[in-house]
Amino acid sequence: MKRVVAVNSNTYHGYSLQDAIAGTNSAGFKYIELTATEGWTEHIFPTMSFKYLCDVKDQLKAGGLEPITMSGHCNLMDSERLKDFILNIKLAGFFGCKYIISSVGEAHINDNAVTSDDVVSQHIKQIVPYLEEYDLTLCMENHGKHATGKLLKNIIKSVASPRVLINYDTANAVYYGNVDIPEDLDLCIGMVGHVHLKDKAGKYNEWNFPALGKGQIDFKTIIDKLERADNDCPLSIEIEFTKDGPQDLDEVNRAVKDSYDYLKHLGLEF
Q1: Which H/E stretch holds residue 6?
Q2: Which residues contact 61 (CB under 8 A, 6 or more apart)?
């Protein structure tokens, strides 16, 4: 099965979006996931000038990259953050993305509100009309206290919209959930609309996310499961290194190219 495979620009956390565009293109990829995560990686953001955002569009086109996804995490438990997420939806629409990613809670800043899954589902239902207007699919990422596909599946079923699916982050399932990925994926694979391919090394709760193929995650099994399920969702590579981060930009670019080569070695067509 031929797939869309992108690079999450969060891989270039601490470096510019222009660095991410250049490195992604140089490695051979044709798609990119743009990151607009408040307090962490703001490669694009609704508060940026229209001129700058137009310049980014031009840079992506010149770099031969299609922005398929936007990572726009907001705390969807907090009704006050819904307006911020709606702005992220509009920003994703501006770039022509097809998918937008969010965790249930905040990704990298403190949650200002915590509530039940039923309330989260009601919040997401309020967002669905905007997803329809901008032709986007929201994919909820397993993250934090909602670390598994099994937990997210209940929210997705409650929302009951084809516009709301799961973004399965392979390393998050281990780091936050300490689960068996193939078993957990089997429980939700019909609701998976997007996958973050992220490797995991070291102890389960150690921040160590190297280039694909350098850790412990069995990506071949994951891809085979998706194909057997006729699930052709896009894949996005995310590399977050260790807590110390990469040594330099060259290390990031090598990790992206190594990940490209690894997926090709697995026989993935993209």
Answers
A1: strand 5-8
A2: none
What pLDDT does 105 receive?
74
> CA–CA distance from 101 to each of 33, 215, 247 (Å)?
10, 24, 28
Residues 6+ apart with CB under 8 A from 96: 66, 67
Q: What is the pLDDT of residues 158-199, one digit of tens each?
A: 999 999 999 999 999 999 999 999 999 999 999 999 999 999
pTM of the model: 0.96
The pLDDT confidence band at residue 213, using thresholds 50, 70 and 90, is: very high
- Identify the helix (H) or strand (E) that includes residue 250: helix 249-265
- Strand 41-42 with 5-8, pairing: unpaired
Residue 268 near residue 5 (C-beta atoms within 8 A)? yes
Q: What is the pLDDT at residue 115?
A: 75
Compute the half-sphere exposure of residue 56: CA atoms within 13 Å on the CB side of its CA: 27
Task: Name the residue among 85, 97, 110 with its Cα closest to residue 60.
Answer: 97
Whose CA is closest to 239, among 1, 14, 2, 4? Answer: 14
> What backbone torsions phi and psi does residue 224 show, to the nearest 5 degrees?
-60, -40
Phi/psi-derived region of residue 55, left when phi > 0, alpha when psi is between -120 and 50, beta in every other case? alpha
Tokens at 166, concatenated: 């799961």
> Average pLDDT of the chain?
96
